[in-house]
Amino acid sequence: xxxxxxxxxxxxxxxxxxxxxxxxxxxxxxxxxxxxxxxxxxxxxxxxxxxxxxxxxxxxxxxxxxxxxxxxxxxxxxxxxxxxxxxxxxxxxxxxxxxxxxxxxxxxxxxxxxxxxxxxxxxxxxxxxxxxxxxxxxxxxxxxxxxxxxxxxxxxxxxxxxxxxxxxxxxxxxxxxxxxxxxxxxxxxxxxxxxxxxxxxxxxxxxxxxxxxxxxxxxxxxxxxxxxxxxxxxxxxxxxxxxxxxxxxxxxxxxx
Length: 256
Prior knowledge:
Layout lengths: L5 E6 L6 H13 L4 E4 L17 H11 L4 E4 L2 E2 L5 H14 L4 E6 L4 H7 L6 H20 L11 E4 L6 H8 L2 E4 L3 H18 L7 E5 L4 H10 L4 E6 L7 H12 L1
Helix pairs in contact: 2-3, 3-5, 6-7
Pfam families: Bac_luciferase
GO biological process, one term: alkanesulfonate catabolic process
Keywords: Flavoprotein, FMN, Monooxygenase, Oxidoreductase
């Protein structure tokens, strides 16, 4: 299966009033993006570490009501912040509010300040990845016995690049893999993902490949497409949420 070219924007929920975030959502949908992501943190990741910041999932519920066309999701939810059954029910509810437009983006977590200040055990990379592996089947099992069921099979996006463990979880559970790094890194890790898919008996073509972009499409798009990427995400920071690069990418998509 060849995935269509899609453009996403990650509206980073930091250093802005919510009215500014809401306006950015409206402008992003009008600009023609396919997906609007936020992220799942409790503090800013850049700038003033104690600056303005808002929570992920309550925001996604608001976006589900505000928008009508785009898919929405977190890039990515931290597995360790919520019981997996609770997270499954939150996702199912936002899926219904949005009319079937939610992507469940999830990862093992990494930002230690979030854990320490909110009373979660940080653990080690190994324990966090193991926790993600435990949660994914529990999430799907909860969906299967919910009433009402999700509107459809909610697509799962896994973010991360660990070659032995994380990519194995992608092969087993994900519909979208979001990787990080250069074109060369994406190419190499995508091939490793294909190997994991073969090991678990899954068609690698069923997993969409995603990457973050910070440059205009004229500089990087052809190489990324050649590496197998079809979903391109532009991160945009508050309070202004400048969408000029986003519009360049949607224009490139439309001209293909």
